[in-house]
TrEMBL record:
InterPro entries (UniProt xref): AraC-bd, Homeodomain-like_sf, HTH-like, HTH_AraC
Annotated source species: Vibrio renipiscarius
Protein name: HTH araC/xylS-type domain-containing protein
Keyword field contains Transcription: yes
Keywords, ordered alphabetically: DNA-binding, Transcription, Transcription regulation
Domain HTH araC/xylS-type: start-end pairs: 196-294
GO molecular function, one term: sequence-specific DNA binding
Source superkingdom: Bacteria
Entry's transmembrane regions: none
Coiled coil feature spans: none
Amino acid sequence: MNCKNIPLERLRSESALTNPYIYRISELYDQRGIEDVSRHHRLNFSALIYITEGVGQHYIDHQRQQIRAGTLLTLGKNQIHAFAKNRTVDGFVMPFNCTFLADSKHDPYFDSIIAALVQINCIHAVSDDVDALLRVMANEFFSDSEFRAEIIRSLLRSILLKTIVPEYKTKANLTQNDRSALSARFHSNISSSDFYRLKNYIDEHFNLRPSVVEIALSMGKSVKQLDKLSKDNAGISVKELLDERVLIEAKRQLAFSQYSIADIAAQLGFNEATNMTKFFKRHTDVSPKDFRQLCRMGLKQK
């Protein structure tokens, strides 16, 4: 692997696509070693981390999260994270593939869960009922029930719908019209996979900087339909969704890779490094160089 690049972690086997597994945090440190678990790496899957004891820190993208017993961390596909070098907490880690969450082709909540996974990464103190659900789910991994996978899926969905999804809706600051559209969508029979398809398309092609027209054509939608789809699920337009993905990747590469700013600009589809600098400053009020320097001084803390 190129030493400049960010290490990528994949699910341990294809069977994990439909049968998730679970680790104790202490087990991960023992099995993989401190250097491995504390190295910033990108996930090719999603994960849930629940802290059951202790106080410490965890790193997600360029943010340092303060964690303690009762903290729930969630990670979406392509996010970068690392455990602390000194283990001061314990709990459990559940890696899973996003498609595991869908309970049917017409799951009305799937898109909201997927959107929330990469936007809301930390619930600092879950409620008692969520804590109970988390512990029941952890125990279910050791069950010999023939319904084990479905029970885990239902519990995981319930946990995410009670924690990160409501916070994501609030953070998105949706208008009343958007909320009405979301409500109508939740009670419709239209497949909820379209927003997931849109997110996947952007994830796979954002570095080519496709236009909204190109994205719409690839998905067999009109620009108006696609913008409505994006606003109904994320509260922003497709162009803003694409810019958001480019921006977070720029931040990840600046924080964790050794590529030059010019190389990062080229990877992200900018014709010139100065164009990326203008884009980055417009969205963050700081230059890529200053952002990288801040990250080198120590990961930014919320």
